[in-house]
Amino acid sequence: MSEQLTLRGMQDQVHAYISQFKEGYFEPFVMLSRLTEEVGELSREINHVYGPKKKKDDEKENSIEMELGDILFIITCYANSMNIDLADIHQRVMHKFQTRDANRWTRMD
Fold it and tell me: Does the pLDDT at position 19 exceed 70?
């Protein structure tokens, strides 16, 4: 099992990686294109595992976990390039769901 990583630590780790390269972060539209591509790859994997479309024998091995990881990487790049603190925005989004949707779903007893 790997060491627990905070969102700040993840953002710092991604930034250290990206900072090695002259190109730096991609422009926002390019990152959106990459995110869309990765979401499509996740969709394909979910269809292979849970849907009716099974992989062909010659298709490369992939996993839902790795596709989610690719999406998380791109989202982290997006946040870093726009100076967005993911931990802060997570708290704000959770507050939104906890208040707006407080009575929307059936609670467990």
Answer: yes
